Task: inverse folding
């Protein structure tokens, strides 16, 4: 096996925090989180989500970074080397394949929604995001239908998004991914804070939104909403699939992993909550339903913006934010596949990038078509797009997370994990191991079993 192992590194701890937060904070936080919260009844869902982040997702995030650092290769070779080096079966590298399959599928549908964000940023900039006297509800419903349901258009936007992602990843770990996040993540926070401040000042519904988001009515919780909260905690932190493992393999040795992981999880959660605080006051002020589903930010928000003073500016800010969130996340799905192909292949990053992106694009075409010509092609009551989301969030991510927790919790000895995490000898180290060995696997087993039922 020839592995060309000229590996790059992030330039500093903060550079990594921006990159990992960029990977974590994406469409999941700004597009999906608000509508699943809306559909699952608000505060109670958020409570479960926060508990899942702290008890299950955060320990696994730290574990992935640690496995990346110890393995120092692409996800598959890292896992194989670590397992074999400790006398375990080389079959553990199959866990890496589950991860690569998952990122392959996620990126194929992420590119579609990423394409919509470019389309809407363009509409907002060009002034097309205005009903211009027509009935707004109908106008924006039709616009969304046209954007997603006209194959040529939707394919164009999706292709543009995939090309942009390829250019970032092809340019390298430091010159591509890190440079992008250094510029765009501060912009993401500025845009988000501006939108929240505007929402707080411009209408009287900020309090209503806060109550909706933070007053937990536990009686509203169903098994299904608990399941989707745990699945979403994994999706939003981009864990369980080796993406963070790959990013962790580029971390300089001096960076402590636990504090870094906690910072990333905290910032990601902050972005999701701020997105809720930016969106729901607007939704409530215009008498709209929080449970509008995937169309919430693409249909409901434009209707509201259209009726507000400086609505065009708000539209530009919001859809720029959405695009920034998407384009800083997409490289984290492409990079694990590219790094595998690069290390196993010729060592050329560009060649690996083009190869992988073309393959993802092909599945992406089918995803695009699932909104138009192929919307009737269904399995288990879902079209391809819905099926992919279900397969990833409810099966592949929890399964990958479960195996990673077991791998790091049971196969690495305390002496190997101690010290490297930056919490040497402390009580926290014990908590971390306990969570990986018992809490996370049990929780994930429950999620998996109920998800498969
Ligand atoms: N976390 C991202 C979001 O919230 C999505 C994402 C990026 C992801 N990389 C991933 C999801 C890897 C699963 C696996 O939008």
Result:
């Amino acid at each position: 096996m020839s592995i060309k192992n000229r590996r790059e590194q992030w330039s500093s701890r903060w550079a990594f925090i921006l990159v990992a937060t960029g990977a974590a904070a994406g469409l999941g936080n700004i597009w999906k989180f608000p509508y699943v919260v809306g559909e699952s009844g608000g505060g109670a869902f958020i409570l479960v989500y926060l508990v899942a982040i702290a008890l299950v997702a955060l320990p696994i995030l730290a574990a992935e970074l640690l496995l990346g650092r110890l393995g120092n290769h692409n996800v598959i070779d890292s896992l194989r080397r670590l397992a074999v080096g400790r006398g375990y079966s080389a079959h553990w590298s199959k866990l890496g394949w589950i991860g690569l399959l998952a990122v392959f599928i996620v990126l194929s549908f992420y590119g579609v929604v990423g394409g919509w964000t470019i389309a809407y940023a363009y509409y907002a900039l060009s002034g097309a995001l205005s009903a211009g006297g027509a009935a707004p509800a109908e106008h924006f419903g039709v616009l969304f239908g046209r954007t997603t349901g006209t194959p040529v258009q939707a394919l164009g936007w999706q292709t543009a998004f995939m090309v942009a992602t390829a250019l970032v990843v092809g340019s390298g770990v430091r010159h591509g991914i890190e440079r992008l996040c250094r510029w765009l993540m501060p912009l993401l926070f500025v845009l988000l804070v501006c939108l929240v401040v505007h929402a707080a000042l411009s209408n009287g519904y900020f309090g209503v939104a806060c109550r909706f988001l933070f007053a937990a009515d536990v009686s509203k919780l169903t098994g299904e909403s608990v399941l989707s909260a745990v699945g979403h905690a994994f999706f939003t932190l981009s864990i369980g699939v080796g993406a963070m493992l790959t990013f962790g393999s580029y971390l300089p040795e001096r960076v402590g992993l636990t504090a870094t992981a906690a910072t990333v999880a905290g910032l990601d959660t902050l972005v999701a909550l701020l997105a809720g605080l930016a969106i729901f006051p607007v939704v409530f002020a215009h008498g709209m339903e929080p449970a509008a589903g995937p169309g919430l930010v693409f249909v409901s928000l434009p209707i509201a913006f259209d009726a507000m003073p400086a609505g065009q500016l708000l539209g530009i800010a919001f859809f720029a934010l959405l695009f920034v969130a998407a384009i800083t996340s997409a490289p984290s799905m492409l990079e694990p596949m590219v790094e595998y192909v690069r290390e196993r292949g010729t060592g050329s990053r560009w060649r690996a990038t083009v190869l992988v992106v073309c393959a993802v694009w092909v599945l992406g075409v089918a995803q695009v078509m699932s909104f138009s010509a192929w919307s009737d092609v269904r399995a288990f009551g879902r079209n391809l797009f819905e099926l992919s989301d279900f397969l990833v969030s409810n099966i592949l991510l929890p399964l990958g997370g479960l195996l990673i927790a077991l791998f790091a919790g049971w196969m690495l000895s305390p002496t190997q994990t101690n010290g490297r995490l930056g919490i040497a000898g402390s009580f926290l180290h014990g908590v971390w191991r306990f969570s990986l060995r018992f809490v996370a696997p049990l929780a994930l087993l429950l999620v998996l079993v109920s998800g498969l039922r």
Summary: The chain has one domain: 9-452. Residues 23-24, 26-29, 103, 106, 235-236, 238, 241, 243, 329, 332-333 surround tryptophan (CB under 6 Å).
